[in-house]
Amino acid sequence: MRKIIVCTFLTLDGVMQAPGGPDEDAESGFTHGGWQKPVDDDEVGAAIAGWYEHSDAMLLGRKTYEIFASYWPTADPGNPFTARMNSMHKYVASRTLTSVEWQNSTLLAGDTADAVRKLKASDGGNINVVGSGDLAQTLMRHDLVDEYRLTIHPVIIGTGKRLFADGAIPTALEPVSVSTTKGGTVVGVYRPNGKPNYDSY
């Protein structure tokens, strides 16, 4: 069974919107695009590279797919991620796209949750969900996420799309590994572990 792994960059207050640049996603008047690079460090890059060691595909929503497809095919070949991002298989969940042109891309047909269940049961390595907040929330609602790999950066911006938005399903998490980089970013890997327990002091 392949694992579905949500890989996301977050601010300390949980915002995932537009980490990569000011023009990446300005939806709802978001003005904080590009918040990640000033608080990034080499250890974060090494951790992210490790996220892809046992994964051979990505699962993307429309917006993230379009951002990636406009960047990676012509990205610097000296960037160690360029060849990997272009060669990995990309599965795209979209209600509006009718075709996908980036190499090794497949548009999922029909209901997203059903299509992802079939992917999980197919042969291959793990599948990383990168960015794609709406898609990630759909997968969470259908209990399809096997693991979260998160970088939580030392910055608060107050507005923007959050991975765990209002209405998120209450879920207990088992920590797999948690570390802090020299720049203060928390790199955490967690697995869903049923429902939360409640108690009092």
Automatic annotation (TrEMBL):
Domain Bacterial bifunctional deaminase-reductase C-terminal: 2-186
InterPro entries according to UniProt: DHFR-like_dom_sf, RibDG_C, Riboflavin_Biosynth_HTPR
SUPFAM superfamilies in the cross-refs: Dihydrofolate reductase-like
Gene Ontology MF terms: 5-amino-6-(5-phosphoribosylamino)uracil reductase activity
Biological process terms in GO annotation: riboflavin biosynthetic process
Taxonomy, superkingdom: Bacteria
Protein name: Dihydrofolate reductase
Organism: Streptomyces beijiangensis
Taxonomic placement: Bacteria, Bacillati, Actinomycetota, Actinomycetes, Kitasatosporales
